[in-house]
Design brief:
This protein is α+β, with helices and mostly antiparallel strands. Helix content is 51%, strand content 24%. The radius of gyration is 17 Å and the shape is elongated. The model has no long low-confidence stretch (mean pLDDT 94).
Amino acid sequence: MNIDLILDKIHVLPEVSKSALKACVTEINYPKGHILLRAEKIETSIYFIKKGIARAYANRDTNEVTFWFGKEGDTLLSMNSYVANKKGYEDVELLEDCELYQLKTEQLQSLFDSDITIANWGRKFAEKELLKTEERLISRQFRTATERYAELLQNNPDLLLRIQLGHIASYLGITQVSLSRIRSEIK
């Protein structure tokens, strides 16, 4: 997915502002398995996925708990670092070879100070990330694992073909055995 589509998906900018923002974006590539963001570290960049898939997870005791997936067009960031300049609580692992757009937070903050339309784009960006987080929280709190799986199947069927079942089970908060049972019931 190209950077123009990703930026416009967040909020459409006038061309001069979009050009200023794009001038701060760098294309980078990392292999499958790379840990892009690390827990307990202040992250200084945000990333947009051009191609590939990633997951965010946290370690709990001896288990990794996956709490979101990102694919083409999605953003990878530590909201704690982005908003509060504090250490993040999540690791972000690339599940495929990924092509990413990198944007340094410091450069983006500078653009916020010099261009009100980019500042408004940043506000829309933060609002959309907040809504995604709220949707995940509500889904986790008020839907059964079967309902969450059906929702994943309906909204992101391509993810089920590209992500290991262990990561999907972790995302749903269940074991792989329970996921197999749910999958057989839904088919």
